[in-house]
Design goal:
single chain, 277 residues, 2 domains, four-stranded antiparallel sheet, three-stranded antiparallel sheet, 4 helices, 12 strands
Amino acid sequence: MFWNKDKLFCDINPTCYAISEQKEICVRHIHDFLGKEQFAKQHSRKKLPNLVSAQDSHLIKHGKGIDMRLQYNKAVNIRLACKKLNGLIIHPGETFSFWHTVGKTTKRRGFKDGRVIIGDKLIPGIGGGLCNLSNTIHRLILHSPLEVTEFHSHSDALAPDEGKRVPFSSGTSVSYNYIDYRFRNNTDEDFQLLLWCDKDNLHGQLRSMKQFPCRYELSEEGHHFAEENGKYYRISKIYKNSFDRETGELVKKELVLDNHSEVMFDYDLIPKELIKV
């Protein structure tokens, strides 16, 4: 048996992938143990008074080729994770870590198989679907003065858009614990995350003690689909825009994602008017 030297060890077979993953998990544990980050830990049932931003998303995706069993399992996983996250206070100087708060996703803790992305494939995996939750948190944070310190992207085209296109409707990747989502509170005010589910939807709020001088919006430019070497990609640039709350003046425009996402759903469902040659 010959080993292709150009092939990564983790790509040789599933066993090699599992070994590589455990190595990365251990490295992250050591890094956090030796590091100086102060992670947010306190929860409060009392809501902070000022609503900074709010986001909602559907728990269940419907469409051609979507495995509904994995969709319903995803909803279970998100509900479990929300119980760990809801009410978390992020004090000044503290860092939010998705995995420090949620913990490891295991069958013993009630997590089920959902969709995960390995390489360029969607496959079942324990705890799958939590990227939907991390993406909702990311959208909350992008509409605030908080600083994103760790972000990993996956395809922003996992399923057809439901209605009007929403920038960053998906695309924030998490995988225990080495692919994390983190942000830091560099302000002098407490912030609070509220995350909960009703029957059909995931709801998120970011709250603070007082209102801030700026309000924030996301905008998308050049959104289209294009074929490259037999595959289709969603292409766009997504910006975070900061406006002075009193004057309405744009004070900052920051590129937060140069989007080039492989389409993971049936190509026949791509809107023809959005395909550019």
